[in-house]
Design brief:
68% helix, alpha+beta, elongated, 12 helices
């Protein structure tokens, strides 16, 4: 959950900064007027939309280390840390990716995440709470889940989807902003000062409204990552890890950053479900049980 939230927040911030700088330099007007058509505006939107998404991706590992306090394990004498590195190394060889950085961050909640700009330049981190709570078989399954994210290139695919979303957010924000400027503020060309203020406000609003698209993709990838964790460490161990997380959070808290995106029946329904980055644990456990055990 935190990995996705950090990416989305950074993406929105980068997108705003890029468009403001482009406006100050006159670059957005130049690109939008190339050809004098909506096609030219769409090219401008795609350039900045995908640019914002890929800048966010490039910053993902640095952000994780900075904002979540991830300490990368080096040549540690600690046997638990050595074991963590060896498990990730084994999983990396099995799924055919480069060895990622392995880190630990301080948090009482059992949690883990993977991030990075490519399959061969990733970071996998676990919380101190996860190390204290779970047994080694369950931790191997969680690490398998995260390494499946890496092997599937989920962060890159998420970036491409976010780039498409950004493109249409910028395009619609500009078009609607111009219409409002002409209709309300009587601007001749739809590019008055009020148009730019409206554009930036609409960019945030449309960005939030488009978030469920990215969240839907994220939920589907979680099911795939669960299957990968089951293949790498055994279905019973993957199920046990998810059930352990469920026990930790019963009664379920209202915290947004519940580990692995835990949500109860009320949260999992209606509008709130649209903004969940992870499916409810019951659904994930049921999907694994349907696979059978091995």
């Amino acid at each position: 959950m935190k990995r996705i939230v950090l990416f989305l927040v950074t993406n929105l911030a980068v997108l705003l900064v890029l468009t403001i700088v482009a406006h100050l330099l006159g670059l957005d007007t130049y690109l939008a007027e190339r050809g004098g058509s909506l096609e030219g505006l769409l090219v401008w939107a795609a350039l900045f939309g995908f640019g914002g998404a890929f800048v966010s991706l490039a910053m993902s590992k640095m952000q994780a280390k900075m904002f979540m306090g991830v300490r990368v394990i080096g040549q540690s004498p600690d046997p638990t840390e050595q074991w963590l590195v060896s498990v990730v190394e084994h999983h990396a060889r099995t799924v055919g990716v480069g060895m990622p950085e392995v880190g630990i961050f301080d948090s009482p909640e059992p949690n883990a995440f993977a991030t990075g700009a490519s399959r061969n330049s990733a970071l996998v981190a676990v919380s101190t709470g996860l190390l204290q709570r779970m047994n080694r078989q369950e931790i191997e399954a969680v690490l398998g889940h995260e390494m499946t994210h890496v092997a599937n290139g989920d962060m890159v695919t998420l970036t491409l989807i976010q780039g498409v979303v950004n493109t249409f957010v910028l395009f619609l924000a500009r078009v609607v902003g111009n219409i409002i400027d002409r209709a309300v503020f009587r601007s001749d060309d739809g590019r008055g000062f009020a148009s730019y203020l409206t554009f930036y406000a609409l960019q945030i609003v449309f960005g939030l409204l488009a978030t469920p698209i990215v969240m839907w993709f994220s939920r589907q990838r979680e099911f795939r990552a669960d299957r990968g964790g089951a293949q790498l460490a055994g279905t019973p161990n993957m199920i046990a890890a998810l059930e352990d997380l469920k026990r930790v959070h019963q009664p379920l808290p209202s915290r947004q950053f519940a580990a692995f995106g835990i949500a109860d029946g009320a949260v999992a329904s209606g509008l709130r479900r649209l903004f969940m980055s992870h499916p409810p644990l019951d659904e994930r456990i049921a999907a694994l049980r349907a696979l059978g055990t091995h």
